[in-house]
């Protein structure tokens, strides 16, 4: 489900489009690859249904900033160009986040997987999704335990000796206070932190896949091994991240 940077279509797809089945299928696949993780994927077939058109409209509004989206992708149009651009995925995520931006309260370790993903920085989130997909392909059952968490939860963990910092990459936020975490703790839902996770090679697989995405893995730390922890920034960027968070 990765973004293909050179899709093309013969005829228009979408509202009032020609909708040749093979063109429709190409556009649906690309929309799926670009869309925010919280969206449900379009069924891949040659039918341009109302879901497909709504998704094109949402893309045109949130990525291209169209005030009057036409819901159609033309062979040489702006919408197709944007669909070929990997940056669109980041924009789409970000602008959907602002709309969803509802309740970021309660125990964040109990949020749904979707909400935990939403609590991550958009660029980091795409990489975490790739790690989760790769682990699943390797037969693991990965899930996010903590994405974002509040500074007060961080303080509790610090007091209990479960974290070595009072502010961590898990606490990063946007200036409006919405979560923008640069860290995630990933476990296999069958084993958690039990010894079985290590025996079955889960932590080393997590480290491998995280590093393939250019992420930092806590299992590499010598002073404070944190095998479930992956992050999108270097430890040296912590102060900068705190400042950006307005904390
Ligand atoms: Zn962590």
UniProtKB/TrEMBL annotation:
The positions making up the signal sequence are none
Query: Which InterPro entries does the UniProt record give?
Result: Peptidase_M15C, Zn_M74/Hedgehog-like
Q: Which residues form the Peptidase M15C domain?
A: 183-231
Q: Which domain of life is it from?
A: Bacteria
Pfam families from the entry? Peptidase_M15_4
Gene3D superfamilies the record matches: 3.30.1380.10
Task: Please give the name of this protein.
Answer: Peptidoglycan L-alanyl-D-glutamate endopeptidase CwlK
Which molecular function GO terms apply here? peptidase activity
Its source organism is: Nitrosomonas marina
